[in-house]
Amino acid sequence: xxxxxxxxxxxxxxxxxxxxxxxxxxxxxxxxxxxxxxxxxxxxxxxxxxxxxxxxxxxxxxxxxxxxxxxxxxxxxxxxxxxxxxxxxxxxxxxxxxxxxxxxxxxxxxxxxxxxxxxxxxxxxxxxxxxxxxxxxxxxxxxxxxxxxxxxxxxxxxxxxxxxxxxxxxxxxxxxxxxxxxxxxxxxxxxxxxxxxxxxxxxxxxxxxxxxxxxxxxxxxxxxxxxxxxxxxxxxxxxxxxxxxxxxxxxxxxxxxxxxxxxxxxxxxxxxxxxxxxxxxxxxxxxxxxxxxxxxxxxxxxxxxxxxxxxxxxxxxxxxxxxxxxxxxxxxxxxxxxxxxxxxxxxxxxxxxxxxxxxxx
Length: 361
What we know:
Strand 5 and strand 6 (69-73) form a beta hairpin. The chain is built from 7 helices and 21 strands. It is α+β, with helices and mostly antiparallel strands and 361 residues long. The protein is globular, with a radius of gyration of 22 Å.
């Protein structure tokens, strides 16, 4: 099992848009990244990131409301191991399966379970029901059998379904890839009315050429334009030298890295509050008191920034009320946070025995 999990670790990707976030996985034999349509819905381009690959943008090639599938363009030169596609229809009750993804923004997560119903039917489609937890962020990731084959695409068809996971059978995925491959590289979408796939060279004035229903190809989606406080935050990030599109991690959520400092920015509209957290390191296993004393002294001396400990993580935080936010001062505050975060993590590790955050942290 560990062998195929290592393969998947290098082929499973985080996907983020201004509207959502989730998981995708690269199928080398088709040179496509597979995910759920609801993860990338409304986007022409998304941000992807994986083990061994830098954060970058990827074009949405195909959207499918019926199967909740989407295909993304693999970046030029993208390297990942070959993942074999199995047959979801061959699963039996009691078979062991593994759901792989990036729930809640974690870098890599694996949950194991057992198939309870290999033919759970919803709206005429067959889903694999199992007890490998599929959490927010897992959507679009692979469901894997004991042979290491991808036999399903994890999705969510029941809200708040505790300890129940659902995955679209890989049989639908194979069928869709075969249909799409005729025009691979072009933007396409499955018509939700007649179920035919429509491409850029066959669509007629935004209508399906087979049945006349309205259809939107991914290439026709409007580019995201932030407004209000979200726009100001992105303008501030741009002035700090970041590629704003690569910082987007979902609705009102951004992430940016400078040096060894990785900062999460969240805008809580209901509280009119911008929270910027830099997870610097984890607590040392021994002799913690000197480090606590140092953090308390720094909290007394710092202006605008605050140290805290959450679980084992040492966090440096900046809070901004949006009613007081001005772009110039906000940019200075952000620059100071990145500078101090990149400084303090080294001090805490080198002088007080703290441990560097792991890639999954």
